[in-house]
UniProtKB/TrEMBL annotation:
Lineage: Bacteria, Bacillati, Actinomycetota, Actinomycetes, Kitasatosporales
PROSITE patterns recorded: HAMP, HIS_KIN
Annotated protein name in UniProt: histidine kinase
Keywords: Kinase, Membrane, Phosphoprotein, Transferase, Transmembrane, Transmembrane helix, Two-component regulatory system
Cited PANTHER family: SENSOR HISTIDINE KINASE TRCS (PTHR45436:SF5), SENSOR HISTIDINE KINASE YKOH (PTHR45436)
Any Gene Ontology CC annotation: plasma membrane
Top-level division of the source organism's lineage: Bacteria
Enzyme class: transferase
Gene Ontology terms for molecular function: phosphorelay sensor kinase activity
Length: 492
């Protein structure tokens, strides 16, 4: 394993399909657990409410029977109940499982210590007593606490015959108990939990499988893109991936990859063109230099050595200028655009170049038509190289005059270099900024430059977040440089 590669967890799957399936199953598990927890409590609550409703219904049915002087039957009751009375040791009536406590000997639930309002319902928890016998009651209630409903009946409201039928004193208070059994709610809840567990497990498996195969199908175009991209080489980046017609994210990915491959193809073509042009440009001065030296060495007695040395020096200077331009272009291609921390006054820079520029070969007038400061952020040396390249280009083509103008226009500094030469055809307005392009092919290369000056100037302009274009003019060529304007200290 590579030392810089992050360590993988042994339990974490590497496949995107498996990871997505695991993530989907985990999210579904969390959701299902939350839903199951809510259903569990809701089912239990509703089951408890049903049990309480049944108990209340049975309680009032027992009260109605007692008010009529009828002792309720032991059998037929769904829930355990017991009727106790003051002044009586045994229960008046019982059933529904209370008979397992042997209440015929004594009542199980407490007799009323104080009478409550007849017809009122009271609900409270009561603990069932532990039975002395070893037999097990039907509902296993002994020693457990249950919710109990009860209502009181006053014997004073009953007739003497009804009191006698019930076997209680004339001033006794009867209390009817009904025990609320949660077993129905518990049974329903347990059944629901089992169903939810089974359905949840099956659902998790189905969700994981669906997510796995859905991602597998969705990634098929990605796999196709990977296969095609793997076949792309640096020497031949012409392969393109198929763009799906679905319009989803894969389409955007394929489009982006094709755009990237196109840029690589363009860059490779540009590099091949650049190498070929550089080799061609280097071959010319080297051939001239080598031929001059070989002739001089072959016929030393007939060689004009000062002329040969002059030719060698001139060709060497061409080689030096071309090498410097190539190195500068290489640096510009690898560096990102920046404006730099320095502030340069382009007016002062242009004025200085105008005064220092050598115009010895033929009479030319070079003027700078600006006095107001024009500040821009950037590297002063790079700005000087940019302006010098523009002036060199104008000097090679101007007939009599070169004019430099600088002005502040809103948030921009606009600098123009205008010559009165033959101008540039409209169809070549962009071509002249390409590397190693010369429109004056008939002119000697010794005087025509390297063909890199304008390309370097535009690259420097772009590096400083500006633009360099050729603007149309009736006479001559006019190059317009736009750079972001820097605020002066007075403006700050």
């Amino acid at each position: 394993m590579n030392a810089t590669e992050p360590r993988r967890r042994w339990w974490w799957p590497r496949s995107v399909r498996a990871r997505t399936a695991l993530a989907a199953a985990s999210a579904a598990a969390v959701i299902l657990v939350g839903i199951g927890w809510w259903l569990h409590h809701d089912v239990y609550r509703q089951g408890t409410q049903i049990a309480e409703g049944q108990a209340e219904q049975q309680l009032w049915a027992l009260v109605d029977q007692l008010n009529e002087g009828v002792v309720p039957a032991r059998r037929g009751a769904m829930l355990p109940y017991e009727v106790v009375a003051t002044g009586r040791r045994t229960a008046v009536a019982y059933g529904g499982g209370m008979n397992d406590f042997d209440p015929g000997t004594r009542h199980v639930l407490p007799a009323p210590s104080e009478a409550r309002q007849p017809g009122s319902l009271t609900i409270l928890p009561l603990r069932m007593p532990v039975r002395d016998s070893s037999s097990r009651d039907r509902f296993d209630m002994a020693g457990r606490t249950y919710t109990v409903m009860f209502a009181d009946i006053s014997a004073d409201e009953l007739s003497s015959d009804e009191v006698a039928a019930l076997g209680v004193a004339a001033d006794a208070t009867l209390r009817v108990y009904v025990v609320v059994l949660p077993r129905t709610a518990e049974a329903i809840t347990e059944t629901t939990d089992l169903l939810l567990l089974r359905a949840g497990l099956v659902g998790l498996v189905l969700i994981a499988a669906a997510a796995y195969f859905a991602v597998r199908i969705a990634l098929r175009p990605v796999e196709a893109i990977r296969v095609l991209t793997a076949s792309v080489t640096a020497s031949d980046p012409r392969e393109r991936v198929t763009v799906p017609a679905t319009g989803h994210e894969i389409t955007a990915l394929a489009t982006t990859i094709n755009t990237t491959l196109q840029r690589l193809d363009d860059a490779a073509a540009q590099q091949r063109r650049f190498v070929a042009d550089a080799a061609h440009e280097l071959r010319s001065p080297l051939t001239t230099l080598l031929a001059s030296l070989e002739v001089a060495l072959a016929y030393p007695e007939r060689t004009d050595w000062p002329a040969a040395a002059t030719t060698a020096a001139r060709q060497t200077r061409r080689l030096q200028a071309l090498a410097e331009d190539l190195l500068l272009l290489a640096r510009l291609d690898t560096r990102t655009p920046t404006t730099g921390p320095d502030t340069v006054d382009l007016t002062a820079l242009a004025s200085g170049l105008t005064e220092q520029y050598p115009l010895t070969e033929r009479p030319l007038t070079l003027t700078c038509d600006s006095t107001a400061p024009a500040h821009a952020h950037g590297n002063p040396d790079e700005y000087e190289r940019l302006l010098r390249n523009l002036i060199d280009n104008a000097a090679r083509h101007a007939a009599h005059r070169i004019q430099i103008t600088i002005r502040n226009q809103d948030d921009w500094v606009v600098l123009t270099v205008h010559d009165d030469g033959p101008g540039v055809p409209t169809e070549d307005a962009e071509r002249i900024f390409e590397r190693f392009v010369r429109l004056d092919d008939a002119r000697s290369r010794d005087h025509g430059g390297t063909g890199l000056g304008l390309a370097i100037a535009r690259d420097l302009a772009h590096r400083h977040r500006g633009t360099l274009i050729l603007t149309p003019r009736t006479l001559g060529a006019c190059f317009e440089l736009r750079l972001p304007r820097a605020a002066t200290p007075a403006e700050d």
